[in-house]
Q: What sequence folds into this?
């Protein structure tokens, strides 16, 4: 009995080894799980469910086959794939979740989220996020021809890379007080998130008690997952 969590795969056509690793994971470890939670940035960039790229069809079919085998799959949006919508959810059988969710697993209460909203020192990013999360702007963007959306996304990606190279590592990490606030708001002692690409298990104090923040790793040259069981919360790395 185990529930698995992954994030930050950044799947794209240009990185076939990561896709192969994910497909193996879906056909292997994930099949034995009670449920799979994907905590954002499954894809490198998502510009609409109507994007006909073959990779998306392949991933939807592989997730659907996991779901059809009896393993429910849940998805929280990341900062790269916040536009992933109902059409892809339906095709893949994934259930789209809200930004922040509290789970009760094997007697343990856990908060799960992507992690970008905890980076409150990155005010440039939060301003950007607030803008691109406006429903009217998203609607407008999704109504644009695909090639225009591709160009805008490419521009945003290159701007982001340029901006990140000027930011300190501290600014791009979570703010410790934002972590405590989130855990106290939801009255939990466990938090699992991704986004920062700094896999670790951190101990802290929240609600006046010991608390734990588990950070998922990005899938670069190996896979990363968190496995929650009755007895344990484990951060695991595995080869593709
Ligand atoms: O993604 P990553 O790892 O490089 O860095 C993130 C933050 N960057 C982003 C931007 C994404 O990479 C772009 C993804 C495009 C996806 C599809 C396009 C959909 C378009 C929808 C339009 C409605 O998330 C980065 C963080 C970093 O994580 C660490 O947390 O620092 O933040 C930035 O780079 C943002 C800049 O710091 C600020 C730029 C200011 C822009 C001002 C507002 C512009 C509004 C444009 C509206 C169209
Ligand atoms: Mn992210």
A:
């Amino acid at each position: 009995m185990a529930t698995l969590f992954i994030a930050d795969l950044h799947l794209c056509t240009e990185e076939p080894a990561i896709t192969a690793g994910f497909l193996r994971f879906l056909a292997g470890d994930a099949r034995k799980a009670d449920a799979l939670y994907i905590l954002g940035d499954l894809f490198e960039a998502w510009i609409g469910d109507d994007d006909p790229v073959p990779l998306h069809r392949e991933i939807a079919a592989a997730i659907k086959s996991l779901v059809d085998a009896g393993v429910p799959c849940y998805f929280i949006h990341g900062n790269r794939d916040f536009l992933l919508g109902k059409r892809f959810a339906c095709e893949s059988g994934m259930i789209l979740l809200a930004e922040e969710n509290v789970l009760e697993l094997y007697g343990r209460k856990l908060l799960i989220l992507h992690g970008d909203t905890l980076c409150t020192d990155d005010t440039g990013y939060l301003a950007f996020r607030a803008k691109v999360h406006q429903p009217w702007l998203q609607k407008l963007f999704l109504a644009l021809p695909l090639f225009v959306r591709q160009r805008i996304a490419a521009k945003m990606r290159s701007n982001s890379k340029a901006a990140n190279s000027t930011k300190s590592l501290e600014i791009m990490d979570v703010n410790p007080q934002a972590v405590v606030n989130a855990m106290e708001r939801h009255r939990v002692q466990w938090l699992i998130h991704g986004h920062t690409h700094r896999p670790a298990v951190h101990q802290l104090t929240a609600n006046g008690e010991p608390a734990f923040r588990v950070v998922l790793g990005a899938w670069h040259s190996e896979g990363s997952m968190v496995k929650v069981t009755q007895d344990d919360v484990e951060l695991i790395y595995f080869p593709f």
In short: The first strand starts at residue 3 and ends at 6. The radius of gyration is 17 Å. Residues 3-238 form a domain with the Purple Acid Phosphatase; chain A, domain 2 fold (CATH 3.60.21.10). Residues 146-164 form the longest helix (19 residues).
